[in-house]
Amino acid sequence: MPDRLRATYHLRCSAASEAEALALAIAREQTIEVPPGVAGDDIEARLLGRVEELDPAFDGAFRAVLSYALDVTGTELLQVLNVVNGNVSLMNGVRLVGLDLPHAVVDALPGPRFGIPGLRHMVEAEGGRPLVSVAIKPVGRSPGELAALATSFVEAGVDVIKDDHGLVDQASAPFIPRVTAVAHAVEAASAKRERPCLYFPNVTGPVDTLDERLGVAAAAGCRGVMLCPSLMGLDVMRSVADGSRALALMAHPTHAQTAPGRHEGIAPEVLLGTLYRLAGADVVVYVNAGGRFAWPLETCRAINARAREPLGRHNAAMPAPAGGVDAAEAGSWFERYGPDTMLLIGGSLLTQTDLVGATRRVVEAAVAAAPHRSTSEDGLR
Amino acid sequence: MPDRLRATYHLRCSAASEAEALALAIAREQTIEVPPGVAGDDIEARLLGRVEELDPAFDGAFRAVLSYALDVTGTELLQVLNVVNGNVSLMNGVRLVGLDLPHAVVDALPGPRFGIPGLRHMVEAEGGRPLVSVAIKPVGRSPGELAALATSFVEAGVDVIKDDHGLVDQASAPFIPRVTAVAHAVEAASAKRERPCLYFPNVTGPVDTLDERLGVAAAAGCRGVMLCPSLMGLDVMRSVADGSRALALMAHPTHAQTAPGRHEGIAPEVLLGTLYRLAGADVVVYVNAGGRFAWPLETCRAINARAREPLGRHNAAMPAPAGGVDAAEAGSWFERYGPDTMLLIGGSLLTQTDLVGATRRVVEAAVAAAPHRSTSEDGLR
């Protein structure tokens, strides 16, 4: 890992001279933010951002690698974000596409408390197979109706049940009655099968209710929760991960303001694969290829890679492709993405006449996708 | 105000049929998020989003007005944001450009505690003149150096001194020594002139340090603070505004992921002019035309208009154009934007050999820009 933080940007510029001027402007904007001559030689030498590399990248864009001193970024998440994507997020034609963090920053952030190994342990799927998660919804259903749906999913063998991110505290299913009813239903149904099923309620809501909601979830026996870091604030998730409650965190990307192919913002793999993970996400939900929004396969693979890659002392985060995944295609997604994947299926199952049967086939596909060197085959753990 | 929340989007589509399909998809995605037939007739009728209007807007785009039921959005800030710009923020070609909120939502949000009248009262500029604010920076300077700079600005007559948004808790000027030193310097220098000068320290940082930082600022005598809502989370600012500390809030747009001319995200006037204001910003900092990033004048005017327009029971927020404003142009900006404006000047003053003289001329321009019906001229208050 580098001594300085290295951020790679794509710059939309018509000429190399323009790209160079823009890269130098960013280096100044994101650090000392005063015109040349104001800060003094010592501060300029130590703290001004540096343009390390600048190359033509593809048609109409340049690739610029900038580096920033640890004395500017510190090791706190928000200041790192402020430096790599602060005021430049208000410029057109500047996109953050890469991030190489110093060891001190990586080490200071919580990362996944459980990650892939911890989640597999929780659901007793340690043989190395992929996991299956489902969503209960829609808004408008009562706690009892949502609990009944959850019970069917437990009976069908899924590993994790989550609330839809649109279920918050509406009158039709307020947070406390919903979480209590669903958690108890999942626990009761789970006791009748071989492996535990987890329920991750959506705790997203006013920040001053978060601690209470985490407490309700923990008291109801939940081993994890879902939250929406880009809605609540990435550092809000970090504070939960750094906190005392040993809850797994499933991060939902609503309001993340990212998609492949844009000229601005943060590339999805950097935001979801690296920043969400470092901020404590055990599970990173993203928009799968072939679903409702059509993110390309290469983006999905890039998110998977960053969620799982070696990163200091941190556990790998579990990538969870979602967003209109067809239940019938589960097997092919496991094959494509490998066993360190949690498929998240929602609407596609809810349209089935035989919900339990259709869900069971997804679970069977996950079991079939376990690596060949599994416990039962080679006697190893 | 409407009974349902109305959100206006620009959709990049090549044909009306495609735009209609996309609008209907958004209406479903942002509310019940299940395929047709799953939710049941009652839920679909009550809770599914509705496409109210759909028209060609301009070349390659359509304007769609969608409405959402209060039973889905509730009145909490984050769920409102989740519905109007949740998963659609992950789609390309969908931009939120308008927001018309039901009375219940507007009334439930804190809005500016002080707003334009409260800020004028604080700095004893009630005659109706525009205000002048400046930034102390850069990172790397010590608390003593920053305090000395602040003292010069007080002597020059500015109304508000803020920390640069890049000053957080770095070793060169850690939060507590910096805020204490600058606040005391501003107070001491302020006592020697006719009107008070305010110091708004940047409290942006780890969310779990926020309450302590607000306490340090209040204990140091600060009447307000600066924070970065898009970095910390918009609801974090809302929670401060709803809290018990009577501090004015200056909202800085770093990491806001918005700019004019994009095909995605939230239009700057909606995010900064309306949402920041409703979330409690007394001052809304934005990127001025003609500055470092070149936001067009029409966007700046639109932000001004939304920050100041009648909005339920709420005070107007003070728009603060910033980002490379040339001190010599202060008068023309006051003329253009009117007296309900706080000009925020940073680097342009720091380059002056005679900093106090240059700053004093900006203050004189603000005094000269007071409306003709001022206290001294017509005897009215």
Walk me through the topology.
Two copies of one chain form a homodimer.
Chain A: E1 5-12, H1 16-29, H2 41-47, E2 50-58, E3 61-68, H3 70-73, H4 77-85, E4 94-100, H5 103-108, H6 115-122, E5 131-136, H7 143-155, E6 160-163, H8 175-190, E7 198-200, H9 210-219, E8 224-227, H10 229-232, H11 234-241, E9 248-251, E10 265-266, H12 268-278, E11 283-287, H13 297-308, E12 318-322, H14 330-337, E13 342-345, H15 347-350, H16 355-368, H17 375-378
Parallel strand pairs in A: 4-10, 5-6, 5-13, 6-7, 8-9, 9-11, 11-12
Antiparallel strand pairs in A: 1-3, 1-4, 2-3
Key traits:
4-stranded parallel beta sheet, disordered C terminus, 5-stranded mixed beta sheet, elongated, homodimer, 381 residues, alpha/beta
Helical fraction of chain A:
25-40%
Structural class of chain A: alpha/beta
Number of helices of chain A: 17
Bin the strand percentage of chain A: 15-25%
Sequence of strands across the biggest β-sheet of chain A: 2-3-1-4-10
| Secondary structure: number of strands of chain A | 13
End-to-end Cα distance of chain A, whole Å, is 32 Å
Mean pLDDT of chain A: 94
Quaternary status:
homodimer
Alpha carbon gyration radius of chain A: 22 Å
Unreliably modeled segments of chain A: 373-381
The largest contact between protein chains, plus residue counts on each side, is: A-B, 83 and 83 residues
**N-to-C series of helices and strands of chain A:** EHHEEHHEHHEHEHEHEHHEEHEHEHEHHH
Major sheet characteristics of chain A = 5 strands, mixed
Shape of chain A: elongated
